Structures are given as structure tokens and as C-alpha cells.
Amino acid sequence: MRMPxxxxxxxxxxxxxxxxxxxxxxxxxxxxxxxxxxxxVGRKLIDFREFNPAVFGPAATLANTNQRxxxxxxxxxxxxxxxxxNSSYNGLQIQVNRRFSRGLTFTIAYTYSKAIDEVxxxxxxxxxxxxxxxxxxxxxxxxxxxxxxxxxxxxVSSFLHEFPFFGQKDLAGRLxxxxxxxxxxxxxxxxxFSRLAGRDNSLTAVGYDRPDVVGDPKLPGRPRAWxxx
Length: 229
Description:
The chain is mainly beta. It contains one helix and eight strands. The protein has one helix at 171-176; strands at residues 6-7, 15-28, 31-50, 79-101, 104-117, 145-146, 153-162, 180-188. Strand 2 and strand 3 form a beta hairpin. The two termini are 30 Å apart.
């Protein structure tokens, strides 16, 4: 991992703010419903950027990248650590709990949420070999989008059922009685997906250019399998 060559003089400690509101209601003697709104925001999050990118202009080429840098010809690439990124999470959480009664208990939990940030993987740049995280180092909002951990819908349910086939007093009851059946079901939507162009189309030497959509990606009949071409 390459370490940053400079630090923003305004670097601050990142912080989080959490807030929530919940309402609980006992709809039956053994059934509880909990509805909650949960949110949090992250401020002054740490990230890396290219502080000395090449400036695009007429006659710009890969060969004259270093000559076009902001601080040329004294400096070439300068990785900088800064703390200006933001994140947010907002979610609706619904949970139904049935207390153990008549041999049955279960829990159903559903979450509808959205997570947005300007930092890949909540600061993944710290754990990668590349120190330049933004496509445009001086336009954070250009990289604002769904967090890598965003899961719009998530359903988790579990149950435990006791089979009262036999009593517990005789031998048959001790061998065959007391059996239970339990299960857990988890369903969730997929993670956000993004691609990098793999080439310096902007000629800025940052290396995080994204490809442009030039047609309808949802046209019918297109193969769904990945191709190496």
C-alpha cells in the first residue's frame, strides 16, 4: 500500500451522528410489533485524492501528462489525505416478535433503507494499493452515490417449533419427545455495482474514469454472461 505524500492542513477527526424513533405495540398477548426509523450521518470522513492532477486542454496527451500538472514542473503526482467526505443512512425497520407459546416462537424483521456516501466502501481507499479515490479530486459530489453496503430491501425471519409428540415421563417420551424444528430465512437485494473505464480517458492521470453509457443497457436479447472482450 502506498502512503499519502501530503496531508490537508484542515484534516479533522471524523464523527458520526445517530438518531432514531421507534413505536412498539402489543397487538396480542404474545405478539409484539416494533416500527422504527433509524438514521445516521458521517462527517469529516477520511479519504485520499490526487492533489496534483494533470489539467486537460488542447493538445493534451498521455505523453505530456506531467507537463500539464497543476504544480508542474516542480512536482508530479501528489497523493493527499483529507477529511471532507460525508455519508448518510436512513432506514425503516419493522419487526414482529411472537413470544414462545404453545410450542411456537418466531421473529420477522424487514428493513427498507438507503445508504449514500462519497467514500468507496466507507473508506476503502485506506485498504487499497491506490491512493486516489475520486474521479475528480476537487468535486466530491461527482462521486456521491450508493454506498457499497447499501441493501435497499432486507428480510430476516426465524422460527422455533416444538413438536409435542410424546410426553417426557416414559422411555419413549424421553427418546422421541422434546424435538424442535427451527429455521432462519434471509432475503436481500443486491449490492450497488459500478465499473471503471480502465484507461485515462480524461487525461488527468487520476485513473478513476468511469465509462459512458452510449446506448440502452436494457435492450432485450443481449447476453447476460460476462465477456472478456
